[in-house]
Specification:
110 residues; four-stranded antiparallel sheet; globular
């Protein structure tokens, strides 16, 4: 079994269904941190959901990220797992205002 640490960064768009991270086939992802950073002088909101077998469940809905600030949506105390082919999706109230950082571990039993 192997564990590989990954940090992924992206800019959120206004499309709330944008896929951020996908668990590959035969892999499990442990999501340790989701941090949303507002890079503008106006407040914004973010929404994240998880898709499991085609069903979407919101894990954070319209969370305010104050201007020029960061908010941890998930931290190590609230980490969760994405099973193979599950997705983490998200978006913001205004495009190019919020950067997202996702830190996770890929667990591989191969």
């Amino acid at each position: 079994a192997t564990i590989k640490g990954v940090t992924f960064v992206a800019v959120l768009t206004t499309t709330l269904t944008t896929t951020i991270v996908t668990a590959a086939s035969e892999k499990v992802l442990k999501i340790n941190v989701i941090r949303a950073s507002n890079i503008t002088s106006s407040d914004a909101t973010v929404t994240f959901d998880v898709e499991v077998a085609g069903t979407h469940k919101i894990i954070a809905n319209a969370i305010t990220v104050p201007a020029n600030s960061s908010v941890d949506i998930i931290d190590k105390n609230s980490s969760f797992y994405l099973q193979e082919t599950d997705l983490l999706r998200g978006g913001a109230s205004a495009g190019t205002t919020v950067d997202v950082m996702v830190s996770y571990e890929i667990l591989d039993d191969a």
